[in-house]
Model the fold of this input.
Amino acid sequence: MLRDNWQMKNGFPLVSVIIPAYNTGRFIEAAIESALRQTYPEEFTEIIAVDDGSTDNTSEILKGYGKRIVYIHQENRGIASARNRGMAVTKGEIITFLDADDLWHRDRLKKVADTFLEKDRIEMVYHPIALIDSGGFMISENFLKAFGYREGVYGRITKDIITGKIFCGGSSFAFRREILKRVSPLPEDIRRGVDYYMTVLASCDVTAGYIPEILGAYRSHEGNISMFAGFKDSEELSAVYKDFAYTYLKLLEKVRGSETSKWCTWDINTLEKMHARNSIVSCILNGRRSDAVKLLPLLFRKGGSPGNLLSALGISLMTLLSPGALVYKLLHLNAMIRKSKLHVSGDKERFSEEIQ
Done:
């Protein structure tokens, strides 16, 4: 059994928590406290906070915790660099990440560790999360249901992660140390989709465990850099699609390498088409219609399912006939419709870190 190879004391494996932070002074204390108040034994937990060159009060807040956490400061290099710095000093058999603006339930680490220990051959574990606003109030009790993600999927989950059916937020996944060795170091020029890149590679040919409980919360605010952030114009949204297209490209480069080909056995055709789709949309939004047209043949390479072909035809029609302004309005409208479903009537409840 995998756990027999772990270095444990009194039956507890050491758990490393990595918290990258950049100008998160409004939220970092709540995140740190949610990690410190865990029911998992404190002596078997190490919390590593990496300040990525913050210019607000993040550094002062982190220094205030003294020896209760491992504090690392570096020049601003991005979240991938901060995670690499944290992973380089970890000692734990289980490694997990907490975004500096997110929160965990008090039993989160205990339930994660228990899942690793109770089930043989589990090499990564994840769970659903809630969605809260900047003030910590509940927007949705279940982020996954609100945005149409799959729940309860375990075992081999790489395909579902690649196609976006599983939300791979950094604060909801935990990994066995050996698995992350495949992934690190993370490419530090990735701006968006670091969680996606890391989770896709970590999941290749391994067994994932699923905990069917809300054990944390994703905080939605104006500083988010994911697809869930607001976009003021088509140029900004074009940059988002371009960033994700680049992340897909870096993944393709990684899995085509000789070192990873031995354990990445899944078909990369889907990933290639996702790279093409995001590149096409970015070009349309940025007024580069001719570049978008040149990329269309990539959508039809190696065929695909009827659904994929219909999607490719739809994108082709959009590329050839729809003005960039209309494409932006349609994408913006879709985002507004999804957000409208999250409306909570009456008084909002604050997210509780206690397990009910």
Remarks:
- The two ends are 33 Å apart (CA to CA).
- The chain has a mean pLDDT of 87.
- The chain has two domains: 12-219, 234-340.
